[in-house]
Design a protein that fits this description.
Layout: E1 10-13, H1 20-34, H2 38-45, E2 51-56, H3 62-74, E3 79-85, H4 88-97, E4 102-106, E5 115-121, H5 130-142, H6 157-177, E6 180-183, H7 190-193, E7 197-199
Length: about 200
């Protein structure tokens, strides 16, 4: 099996190379790898679940890929906070800002519109190292991931409200402190939503 992760996440032609099944499997594998260690043990001891931010660019295929990623994370016991359509650097900013455990950006950056990609961020909005990506790939290849079960249906309104507030704050910051550089946006659709933010 060829390596899934390239220099900037997993990319391919949407619904042919990058399918909903692959997106779901990647999300479940990422949840398994990124919810291990002392921090995860502390969350469990406190009766809390891990939190992940999911966002996308304006590509049409981002809708079904976001749904698949969110399903994979939720079925693995992760609370999913949907940030909607925002630039990739803004996703990393939100992960750090709300202290999420990790996050996923659905975007292929400058690649042609039929393509899409899945970029996974670790804690603090940082890029995953090769070792973490290799562990995720190994789990996807093994295909032996299990779901966490129906007990996941619990009210997450407070965290969703917090995410909405942080996202609004990010969009407003450009107006209060001058134009703010937050990253590329390939299709230009965010310029209407974020007129005071410089997309570079």
């Amino acid at each position: 099996m060829p390596r899934l992760f390239g220099t900037d996440g997993v990319r391919g032609l949407a619904n042919r190379e990058l399918t909903a099944d692959l997106a779901l499997g990647l999300a479940q594998a990422a949840a398994a790898v990124l919810t291990q260690g002392r921090h995860a043990d502390e969350l469990r001891a406190a009766g809390r679940r891990p939190v992940a931010v999911v966002a996308r660019d304006p590509r049409v295929s981002g809708e079904f890929l976001t749904a698949a990623v969110s399903a994979g994370l939720a079925s693995s016991g992760v609370d999913v906070l949907d940030a909607g359509v925002i630039p990739t650097p803004a996703t990393a900013f939100l992960i750090d800002s709300i202290r999420a455990d990790f996050g996923v950006m659905i975007s292929a950056s400058h690649n042609p519109m039929p393509d899409n990609g899945i970029k996974i961020f670790g804690p603090g909005g940082h890029k995953l190292d090769d070792a973490a990506e290799d562990r995720i790939e190994d789990l996807v290849a093994a295909g032996s991931l299990s779901q966490a079960g129906a007990h996941l249906l619990r009210d997450r309104w407070e965290r969703r409200h917090e995410l909405a507030q942080r996202r609004a704050q990010l969009l407003e910051d450009g107006g209060h402190r001058g134009r703010r550089r937050v990253g590329t946006e390939p299709c230009g659709l965010l310029r209407d939503e974020m007129p005071d933010v410089a997309l570079v």
